[in-house]
Amino acid sequence: MRIFIVVLLFFISTLVDASNFIAAKLPNSKYLAETPSITVALPSSYTTNSTKRYPVLYVLDGELNGELVKGMLHRLHLSNGSYEHIIVGITSSNRLRDFAPTVNKDPRGPVGEGGGGEHFLDFIEKELIPKINHDYRTTYFNVLAGHSVAGLLVIHSFQSRPKLFQSHLAFSPAVWWGARETSEATKKYVKSKTTNQNYLYMGIGDEGGEMREVYDSLALTIMRNRHLDLKLELDEFENDSHDFTMAAGIYNALKGLFQYQQQYGI
C-alpha cells in the first residue's frame, strides 16, 4: 500500500497545479477570532457549461489535502467514476483550537486545547456555505472531509448538525479526544434511529492504543445500529501510518460517495 500511495501522490501532482485553487475573499468572521484561509477549485467544465450546477466538497486542511482530493476526483471523473465537484479548501492556523469540538482534559493529550469546533461549524454553516452558494453554481449537496483532528470535526458535524452536510468523509478521526465525548455522542445519535439520509466514510491505519479502541467501538456501534438511510463504508489500512490514511483511503471514499449519489439520484 505504501508504494501505491507514493505513486498516487506523484500521479496526482502531475494532474493538479496549485494554481487551480483560487483564494476566496471573506469578511472577518462573526464567529471566529481568526478567519480561515479559503481556496476554491472549479471543475474543468465549469466555464464551458454555464447552466450546470455542482455538488461541493469542503476539505479541511485544504492547503495540505486539497490537491489530493482534486486530483483523485479528476481521475475518477475521467473514468466515469465520479461526478465533478466544486472543491473548497479550508485551512486554519490552529487546528486543535478550531477543529476539536471540546476542550481536552485528559493528561494523555494537550490539556486545555480545543473547544472551538462548534464556532468553526457556525462559520462554515452561516458564512462560508452561503458565500459559496452565492458565488458559484451549486446543487446544495455538500460533503465534508477531514483527517485526524479534522476528521474528529467531521464526525462531530455528522451527529450534531446532521443536515448541514449530506456526506461525511473521516480519515483516522481522533475520536479519542476529550474523554471520548464526540464518540459517545455519535453512538447515542446513531442508536436514536433518527439519522438522516447520509453517506459516512471512516478509515483507519495502523494506529493502536486508545485511538484504535475508541475508533473500533464507534465503528461497530454505527454498523450495528445505523438506519437504512445511512450508507456506511469502513476501511482499514493496517500497513499505513496515521499520516497516510487520507491518501490511502481517498479513492474508496470518493468511489463510495459516487455510488451513494447515483443510488439516490443526486
Structure overview:
With 266 residues, the chain is an alpha/beta fold. The chain has a single domain (2-263), classed as Rossmann fold (3-Layer(aba) Sandwich). 44% of the residues lie in helices and 19% in strands. The chain has 8 helices and 8 strands; from the N terminus they run αβββαβααβαβαβαβα. It has an 8-stranded mixed sheet, with helices on both faces. Helix 6 links the parallel strand 6 and strand 7 (198-204). Helix 2 crosses helix 8 (245-263). The protein starts with a helix and ends with a helix.
Question: What's the arrangement of secondary structure elements?
Answer:
Layout: H1 2-15, E1 21-23, E2 37-41, E3 54-60, H2 62-78, E4 86-91, H3 95-99, H4 117-135, E5 138-147, H5 149-160, E6 167-171, H6 177-191, E7 198-204, H7 209-225, E8 230-236, H8 245-263
Parallel strand pairs: 3-4, 3-5, 5-6, 6-7, 7-8
Antiparallel strand pairs: 1-2, 2-4
Helix pairs in contact: 1-2, 2-8, 5-6, 6-7
Family: Belongs to the esterase D family.
Keywords: Hydrolase
Protein name: Esterase
Jot down its keywords.
Rossmann fold, 266 residues, Esterase-like, disordered N terminus, globular, eight-stranded mixed β-sheet
